[in-house]
Amino acid sequence: MANLLIEYFDFQLTDALPSVHGGHGEGGGLVALIEHLLSALTRDTPSSWSLLGGIETLGTNLHPLLLHFPIAFIFGFIFTELYGFVFRNTGARQWASGLLYLGALGAFITVVSGLIAAETVPHGAQVHEIMEWHERAGITVAVLTIGLGVWRRIGGVPKSAMATALSMILSLLIAGMLFLGADMGGMMVYGHGVGVKTLQSSAEHQHHLHNSDTPTP
Fold first, then answer.
1. pTM score of the predicted model
2. Domain membership of residue 19 as a residue range
């Protein structure tokens, strides 16, 4: 396993240590390692990674950059709310309210960015129907999340059995629509290449895997 990690990072483990009496090889020690990292951060070639290069590649399509935030906040709300309900922890449910408000704001911003992306990102007729259902799922999530957030802001943490049950049902519906929307979004990007500027051939790079007849250390 150690050898696999060393090969993955493409430098010898001993090269990360400072050289003593002229060094033990051509790695250059810790100074060279830092130099390589700085070079990777400042490299400006199309074939290599650069700092904030992904955001620069997105251009005006900010939807992929924003969509993860409402997903994290909404699922964080659901799990925190469930924890607070099961263990009768009022403080946890109040924290859940804050996560819900952030999720509602993030869902609204993400839907707006998605609608803009739908008008600016090229896509074919085959993908258009998937994109429309993806939009419907996103708008449904935003409407339900904002509605639940307003209700919770006005009425506070649900206390009655009926209010709690309704809140849980809405939360599960939101989670289900999030899952469906994410699935359709993944299909568009990874199945049809929507929003992908360049496609790489797998022949350009292969990870080195051990053969089945190679003994495992």
1. 0.72
2. 2-45
